[in-house]
Amino acid sequence: MTSKLRARTAASSRSRTAAHLDLIELWAIGQYVDGLVRGELRRHGLSGELLALLAHLGRTGPQTIRELSTALGQAFMTVSDHVSKLERVGEVQRIDHPRDGRSRLVVLTAAGRNRAEAGVPHVRTVLDAIERHLSGDLRAVRASAEDLRNAVQLAFEELEGEEA
User: Fold this and answer.
1) Are 51 and 115 in contact (CB under 8 A)?
2) What pLDDT digit, counting tens, does each position of 105-153 carry?
3) What residues have CB less than 8 Å from 9, skipping those under 6 apart?
4) First-to-final CA distance of the chain
């Protein structure tokens, strides 16, 4: 192997390793955020279980299981199981889709809305703590996070679409 080829191969390997480490770093960030939010909610006697699903419905309004799956980055059957669990405890209900007779929409009930709203101040506490430790312009960080979320969501739709 020539020295130029060796150098190119080493650079390519470092690049792949860096990309791999970046993805692991993002995964770790997600784990940290999950732990921080769950811990803050638990300290206040609240359950974080499925709170993201309830909060999402609170922001967006009724959605199909497929839409929830895509928005939350979870497999269709996982979200379907979660919705069934929330339906059993009266926090969501399924209604007929007004424009698509084959689909059903998941909607929040008053109990689901109450639980989602009870978590807001505690999630905000975590967000405020994270923002205090960010360096750089907060608007730029938020724009980058939104761009990353969109890219990850599109990748999820692409890869999950292969399984369907």
Assistant:
1) yes
2) 999 999 999 999 999 999 999 999 999 999 888 899 889 989 988 898 8
3) 1
4) 44
H-state helical runs in the chain: 3-43, 51-60, 65-72, 76-88, 110-132, 138-163
Q: Tokens for 2, please give them.
A: 């020539």
Contacts 24+ apart (CB under 8 A), 65-68: 65/104, 65/106, 68/106
What range defines the domain where residue 78 resides?
Answer: 48-133
Residue carrying the six token digits 């209604």: 95
Here the CATH number for the domain that contains residue 53 is 1.10.10.10
Please report whether residue 39 resides in a domain: no
**Closest to 148 measured CA to CA, from 22, 53, 47:** 22
pTM tops 0.70, yes or no: yes
